[in-house]
Amino acid sequence: MIQGKEFEQRLEGLNWTLYRLAKEMAEYRSQGEEVSPASRYHSSIGKAIENPRKSRLETIEDIVQVLNGELRIIWESDQVVTIRLEDETIEALKQRAENEGKSINEVARQLLIQALSGIPTQKHTKLTELVFDGEPKIYRSFHPAIAAAYSSVHQWLEERPEAEGYKELDYSQEIARSLRKQDLKSIAFQFYTLFPSHYFQAGHVLDNVINSARLLNRIKSNPRIYLVDVGCALGAGTAAFVEKILTLSKEEFSSKPIEIIAVGIDTNLYGYAVYKKLMEEIQKNVSEYNINLEFKAINEPLAQATLRTISYFQSKLNDENTSVKILPHLFITQLDVASSITQYEQLRKEREEKLKALGIEPDPETESDQSLWQNEALFLKGLLEEIPAEKIHLVTIGTKNIEQFLEDETEIKEISQGIQELHLYLKQLFGSDQVSIFLEGNQTVNFYHPIDSYWYYFQHLSNQDSFYSSFVNIVTSEIDEQKQIITDENMEIAWAKARSNVFSESFYDEAEIRLFEQNLDDNLKILANKIVELPYAKDLLNLDQDISYQFVKNKIKSRPKQVTRLEEEIIAIAILQTIGTKSDFEHYAYKLKPEPTEDLYEHYFPCYQKFLNDSKYSARSYPDGAVIRTDIKSYYTEVIQEQLLDITNRELKIISPRLKWLLYQIFKKDLDGHEPGKGLKQGTLTSGFYANLYLKSVDEYFQNSSKWKDIIKYHRYVDDIIIIVRNPVYLEEVEQELRDKIDELGLSLNESKTEHYNSADFETTLVQDKALDQLNDEFNKALVYAWRMNFEYRTQFEAANLSKDEYLWWKKVKLYQQCLHSIDIFITEDQLSRKIHQKLVEIDISKRKEISFPTFPSSSKYTVILHWSSQFKKLNSNWLKRKEKLKSNVTKIFIDSVEELETLIKNIPYQNELIDETEKRQINIKRRQLESRIRWSVKKLMILGFDQVRNKKIVWEKVVDLICNPRLFVIRNLLEVITHLAYQGHTDAIQQLWDYYKDREEETDSYLRAVIIEAFRFLPILEVSDFHLIFNLSTEAKQDIEKLKATETWLYLGDRAQPFVQKKHLQAIVNALESDPFPRLKKNYILILGMYDVTLLENISLSPEEKNDYLIQDALRLSEEGRVSEIFQKPEPARVRQYYNTKQTSTSKDRSDYLSPF
Q: Whole-model pTM?
């Protein structure tokens, strides 16, 4: 009888905790799929150990297996059956379980029962230790590009007198001799007879271990692949890998060509020659497939070849065509490795004979006891450490050459034993934790013999080859992601992305960003050095300086958001750019953008549109089915941080302790408005990626589970989930399993947004708003003339862009901005800069239609801009009429949608009592459409102007109503909308908003007050009452978010505020500074005093942390130098322009305003 103390003793002997056992159990039960959180098993394991008699047999069995024990079943006949699963058996069980849609335990139990009861099993095809039902054969053949290259090499060989007669040799009599010879005729015969089988063997292994989707993802992020053929088998391994690339979906590739950097090592001169000739032919043939093959053939012993290979790859890593300075993946094939081993053995024997001739006995330890695979392993170690490479993927195939070598030179008679010795030596050299064996054993491949091959000539059209092979991954413990993270290029791109995201967020600390950019290069280097020199320092990320606030989500809900320090945002992005490409799962949302632009992710609209379209087509494929559409309740706030960290480390294969620590610091935070240990920051750019990754296990279960195959179609965009069920009878079961799966992650469904449809009704919810589509196209077609300008204007901007004068570009942008303002086109400097730059790089822009423009203004004087406006209106009266008509149409759709929404909301309480679920659904669909129309039209009127009158009401008044009416609260970009009201000069609108929110105490009102205060800086006139309001909030506001934005507005106003500033105001700032505010507010107080009276800073006290904080130190330095006013006067750094997204994306961005997530 099993006693609990036996388990306890075993745990103590292994020095394991219950949590460690739970994690091992989770790994064991995952069966190669998503690993469940350890917390799922912790309780059941504890109970099983405490009282085994009351626990399930399955749990006891699994605990015994995980603890590496035996479970014996003793029958009355004294027959003893011991359950001990070897590695091969476990793999076989996994394969059979996957094929039959069962668990490993179910399959093992079935086989055990059959064996014990004497029930005969069916005849099967043998595979390792178990047997499986036979499967249909799949025959491989040469890709046309490879077939043509193979035939071309034969044409070349037939012209060589040294190879004359090689096609006349008999395989059965000559193959053994040819493998021992070094002449061209023997090599040609091997190419004639063995190359095809080696090629198909390599292709078979590559297809079984390299997932095409993963390879696609890697190529998208880095379209350069490195590979090495060791003892290159005449190029069979390289050719097979090229075919792997050729068979990938070309639709997934960008226009940038794929580069394959190959090295072939063969100690045989003629093998080297054939490899080189074959690669030349393949190189020509694959160029039309947008593949650039570069290769280097090396005819040297392995020791010298190692140095040549390292040097060659290092030169490729340092060339200007790649930004990746470390090899994430290096593929190595060993198909004819015996050639290098044979040469070493020959040299060793010659050395021994020469020593004996001199009367000296060779030292057995140095001369003959060297490991069979030592040179190979040292070669791999050199590549891993010196290139450097992050991971080596090693394919070894037991070819005829290896077989012949083992027979002639060693006591090893089985290829499997020889390859196993290689694995053992690799583990000894690198360490077991760095070497992973993913494939080892006998393989079978079926193929058609190619034209010009020996067997094709004898009319053997197809063949089945059995061979022994292995696939091993080797990772380095020293070369980790850290080096990639802190490169100058990666850090700068991370800063550009962080900057772009912060300025598009609902709240940001602009003074912090401006200060960081005062010494951009130094601050980026300091940040990188911190990661290297202070990897575990608690203050590395200034984690205690987050600003929390409640963002307005809708009329009744708020969303907790955080503003992190810019350094944390930069580091988080730098990390994600490094590790995010390792993610190998297909998803719609938050796809990392491979191009080095200021956008971290692919644009929202196409990705979300694909999600909806795929869902629609899935529904069509099950016309009689049902649909579940739902989302996750309070998703970001309920994420369990510890589980997110485990999932991230596992899925992204994080091995660097430093990187794991950094991720821990980013994820593990006590966030305001969240339970301890829960929550993912909202307001940071990288959170979306990790939120998506957190649900990967749910995706994989519903997409890959045999239980639901051909029964459901599953789609997810972040937490928006759509499941199409073939037959409605499964609906309840599917929904319950969805609840169970997300419950394992600590999540729950949002009941108010969980809806059921039949397939036909579901499609009606996805109907596009065609009227809005048409109006959106009209808007883009009309306004593009303002961004396109004419040849003269573009020439001036092009010259400014190319000049070294940082201010010239912005001088012209500001002038043109004022011109556009004069014809009622309102756009910020930063937005205009991007639109102009986009047109400068547009292909064939000179062939596009243009409108007429006056001479570019020479200054920003009022009279000059007024004259420009007058001239422009004379030249473009038709275009201006078109613009005004467009504005009227946008205004109409805005006012009509608001009024219709008001009526709809007013009647909802009455309707809910009288209508059925179908009608309620139609009302919700209509409401979402109206809300989308309002959001879209508001964004367009931010450019066209809020000044039109319709239905006796000015547009801006309706906008104010929307912001102040909680039942109509549909605007998401509040900061952008409110500041545009001020920018367009609607002072009354800003005053009305302030009067409404100034004394309110809802949890979101503090955020709204902060936003309204920011808008005061853009008003055309600053009244004394406005300044007093800003001053009072700077020191007396209830919330830090209001103080931060009020002080920032004061700094932004600069000279405009100076006439109102008195000594009492500055003394109040001194008093506030002495109250020890948090650093982000403290730096604003320092800057305000530095702007007016730097002597007031003489007695300021700083903590040790503040003395090392660039925010505080740069604020003090600028104050002492009298340069505070520069902070908001300087434009964005010139280098940002190189990261502008040059693709046309306006349509996507516009449409995303009205195609809102569920």
A: 0.63
